[in-house]
Amino acid sequence: MSTPLTARIVAQHASTVRALAPHLPGAARRSAAMEALAVTGLPGSRDENWKYANLRPLERASFTPAALTPPAAGADAALAAALPQRLEGFARYVFVDGVFAPALSDTPAAGPARLTTLAARADERAAPPTALVPRRELGADQRFALLNEAFATDGAAIDVGAGDEAARLELIFLASAEGQLGASYPRVELLLAPRGRLVLVERHVSSGAAASFVTSAVSAELGRGAALDHYRLQELSSRAILFDTLTATLAQEASYRLHALCSGAAAARSTLGVRLAGERASLALAAAALGDRQQVQDTYALVEHLAPHARTEETFRGISAGRARVAFNGKIVVAREAHGTDSRQSLRGLLAGPEAEIDVRPQLEIYTDDVRCSHGATAGKLDDNMLFYLLSRGLERDTAQRALKWAFLEDVIAKIGVAPLRRQIEERLAGRMQDGAALRELI
Amino acid sequence: MLAIRDLSVTVDGKQILNGLTLEVPPGEVHAIMGPNGSGKSTLAHVLAGRPGYEVTSGSVTYEGRDLFALAPEERARAGVFLGFQYPVEIPGVNNVYLLKAALNAQRKERGLPEVDAFEFLGMVREKMKLMQMEDSFLSRGVNEGFSGGEKKRNEILQMLVLEPKLAILDETDSGLDIDALKIVAAGVNSLRSPERSALVVTHYQRLLEYVVPDVVHVLVRGRIARSGDRTLALELERRGYDWVSAEAA
Asked: What residue spans define the domains of chain B?
């Protein structure tokens, strides 16, 4: 599918590939990804699963990695100031425009969870090339993951061995470059050995109001009985553009709790693909998205039940205000061999303005009997009965509406098990809802 | 306190209240009884300002003010309280937040500073004791997962904290067992004073054994068909509503 956009990506890749070579291994994989992308092209707005995303920024984006431009002197101090407060008990690793920043990070330590940067692996030469290759058999759309693969400058590879205590890591991807100067390609490869346990906080933030162009890719492989608690916070500047792809495969009895909170960026699209490949694997996906002004928050989540007795619990809460668009498309596929599947979807959108848009869409494809699949999707305004109840107690209309919006998100927020993180998120959300001071009492 | 004159109200074009006239002086408790569909709950909701009711004629003055000129939240801050027949569950908004926000909204209206957090909790706990509610109620979502009885007790707790001048209790006794009924009645009685009034809407006279009304009104087809003292409630209990309805027709 040769389009002007694809041709431009190929050309920019050709001119940067030499500069990329010293940074990373896998020139072969990189060019394979580029070749694949040249064939498939990037998604267009006519693609059924992309109609809610804002793809227009691609037309003027520069795909050359920003990391190829050396950072200005003294930049570290400004970047450090952009980092969120530290979470106690979590080792922190920071990547600036997709490249590991040792000055802002803890020293990777030995332990049950081993973090290596992909760039460092290049030096080791012995790095296994496995996880980098996007698994094309995965159902979720991999085209932006291919883009990441083709241009990635660095990333975090995390190997977690078996352990009783869950390792705790925080990855911060800081976008600092203006989009016209170059793109950023955050990348995470997670490998949890059988019974490996990890609590991972993955945070995407901006330095100042940078209009960065970010294409991130995360892959996770959970071995038998492994447990991953994954908190993804997208808090980019209101001018940034994000295309994100996450794929995960769960072996028998593995448990994946994925919490996603999207409140930043001008336009963000997240494509999630989770495969429950082993018996009794379980996924709890809780996502919340907030859109205001002209923001676009679009999530597509494909969950594939491929083995018997696996469970999925999917919760989405989105609030759209101003002229924003908030979309969540949740598709669950139950394969022929996946009898005893138990899946629940609860997708709810709240319209907080006459010009706002909400699109929530549950989809079920079931190829076997003996399953329990429930789904509910609603999009609407604040509940009139709840509003009247609060008004009848004397609360100002504004205050009552804010309290109800808060309550609406609570289904997702309450599931955040890391207390200091939940607090940070609540503070941030309260701040976003203008009259934060009053809302803080709800926390 | 409350003067209702010739009030007519329609809901979705259907006439529910039909020229209702009623006066509640300060310090009095009036009971509104009546068969199903007579307009009892409509009256309660119209007074509290619930949307969806169209006032086609008549007037309501509360402490000399035109009640219909006030938004629901303004009525509440002016001392009108509606105890809901079906209290609404609001997960994610906890009870203590609602109580505090409601009390502070009222204090702001009166030009008073926000309530001190420590004193507030002390005061709420004391009232919770009267309502026999456990401390854990405070941190739970408003009415979330409460039993019917717990919801009603929570309504009365809110009333005790807000100390309204005019309490309108819409079938607060429905769904209560005798013990819960006594607790609720004790809460209502604790607020009785020469400055406060209450309009107690009920289908059965059982509640009125514990909250003894000064006047009992029988509502039939949207207007007061008969008024009397508490013995009227006992008579209704004995004879049912048909004879009043027949008289009214």
From this structure: 2-248
Q: What are the chain A neighbours of B67 within 8 Å (beta carbons)?
A: none
Read off the pLDDT of residues A19-44 as tens digits, 9 standing for 90 and up: 775 556 567 778 888 999 998 899 98
CA distance B67 to B47: 8
Per-chain mean pLDDT for chain B: 93
Task: At A331, list the tokens.
Answer: 């598709």
State which fold the B2-248 domain adopts: Rossmann fold (3.40.50)
Flag whether A13 is in a domain: yes
Q: Give B100-134 as a DSSP string.
A: HHHHHHHHHHTTPPPPPHHHHHHHHHHHHHHTT--
For residues B184-201, give the mean pLDDT. 94
Closest residue, chain A, to B74 (C-alpha): A394
Residue-level pLDDT at A130:
42
Mutate to test the interface with B, among A350, A381, A389 (most CBs of B within 10 A): A389
Question: With a cut of 50, which residues of chain A have pLDDT below it?
Answer: 124-136, 435-439, 443
The predicted structure's pLDDT at residue A432: 65
- Show the domain range for A96: 4-278
Total domains in chain A come to 2
Rounded Cα–Cα distance for residues A140 and A275 (Å): 10
Give residue B51's identity as a one-letter amino acid code. Answer: P
Last residue of a domain, one of A278, A306, A333: A278
Residue after which a domain boundary falls, among A231, A248, A278: A278
Residue A372 maps to a domain: no
Supply the ipTM of this predicted assembly: 0.96
Is residue B187's pLDDT more than 70? Answer: yes
For residue A331, being part of any structural domain is answered with no
User: Which of B 94-113 lie inside 8 A of A, CB atoms?
Assistant: 94, 97-98, 100-102, 105-106, 109
A368/B243 Cα distance (integer angstroms): 63
What span, in angstroms and rounded, lies between the C-alpha atoms of A135 and A146?
10
What does the pLDDT read at residue B69? 96
